């Protein structure tokens, strides 16, 4: 089960922050004022704003760009979701119904998350892999390990919600689904920020989860947190330096170093080496970011036990179904 759980986690880690397809528009002053006032942003008449001919397709991206190096505020989240939901809704009645449906779906999602954390053994993927992280938490012998597994379980559950969430909350209208995904995006950002801060302190005090001393899943869990620390590139670079000798010593999965190497390179605007990081280029089509050496990439992947790039690319296409 750990091997399958790891495969799912690796797939999610291969989705780098996507670039916008076009330069987003400027945020109008009336919306800027709402960004710091969650109650006002929630109460704003988005359907009336839509009727003015505003660019509801580009403005949510513009809101995101305001906060690219941090998490959205509650006001920005309300703005982004309201604008996106208004784009999907044909009328005010549907807009309000979508808001109610999304709130009910979020309650079902939270109840399911609590059930998993309580020990429910979900038999179906991808959430069976989340249950396996909670089993790791139960078998851990130290508080440090238990907290590590709890955090990565929450990380993976929330990320799997983007693709498999409807299995839990049911089918939703486009507007309600847009709202649910907005809730998940903000949660992911908060989880990543909290996990980065916790892992920094943990590793500074205790060192790495070497596979000679811990279950291999512990090292993989810590690596996942680093992989998702994109808003702290200095920390990712520091961890890359730490992991390189550990990979040579066999104290981590060698491929974990390779994935992080690519992540750091792509986040810094450089070509990657192993082809692990990419983006959706069209519906159902994933492609790797620029490569250092396209002719040697497969040999480099083989050296780090990463498998075929062609097979990896084919597997990643599924994560671009909603592009």
Global outline = globular
Class from helix and strand fractions: mainly alpha
- Counted beta strands: 2
Query: Gyration radius, to the nearest Å?
Result: 21 Å
Task: State the low-pLDDT regions, or none.
Answer: 17-21
Give the overall average pLDDT.
93
Q: Count of DSSP helices?
A: 16
Helical content stands at 55-70%
- Total number of distinct structural domains: 2
Largest sheet, spatial ordering of strands: 1-2
Strand percentage lies at under 5%
**Biggest pleated-sheet summary:** 2 strands, antiparallel
- Termini separation (Å)? 30 Å
Tell me the series of helices and strands, N- to C-terminal. HHHHHHHHHHHHHHEEHH
Protein name: DUF4034 domain-containing protein
Keywords: Signal
Pfam families: DUF6624
Organism: Brevundimonas alba
Structural account:
This protein has 323 residues and is mostly helical. The protein folds into 2 domains: 2-212, no CATH class; 232-323, no CATH class. Helix content is 64%, strand content 3%. It has 16 helices and 2 strands. A two-stranded antiparallel ribbon has the order 1-2. Helix 1 packs parallel to helix 12, helix 9 crosses helix 12 (216-227) and helix 12 runs parallel beside helix 14. The longest helix has 33 residues, at 174-206. The two termini are 30 Å apart. 36% of the residues are buried. Residues 17-21 have low confidence and may be disordered. It comes from Brevundimonas alba. Residues 1-21 form the signal peptide. InterPro entries: DUF6624. This is DUF4034 domain-containing protein.
